[in-house]
Amino acid sequence: MTDTITIGESDVLLVVDIQNDFCPGGKLAVPRGDEVVPIVNRVATRFRHVVLTQDWHPPGHRSFASSHRGKRPFETVTVDYGQQILWP
Predict the structure, then answer these.
(1) What span, in angstroms and rounded, lies between the C-alpha atoms of 11 and 36?
(2) Which of the 8 DSSP states describes residue 67?
(3) Phi-psi region of 15 (alpha: psi -120 to 50; beta: other; left: phi over 0)
(4) What global pTM score does this model have?
(5) Is 24 left (phi over 0), alpha (psi -120 to 50) or beta?
(6) Domain definitions of the chain by residue range
């Protein structure tokens, strides 16, 4: 059984966090993360509207390990919204 999707003129493809930092060699690399890029590029050609988001934090953001004395990347700290994994 093959399911199909009909894409209309007002439909939007929302692409979240496709960026170099999450590809091999990036600061927060996801194994084989780059393999999704050609798939997204192919699917995007079928949509009139494509919206891409990008994860970004200003220097000194509390999600960075360097903002917490003595903490290393991927350790956690408690902040007002709960546990935060610290990023490089």
Answers:
(1) 21
(2) G
(3) beta
(4) 0.69
(5) beta
(6) 10-56, 59-88
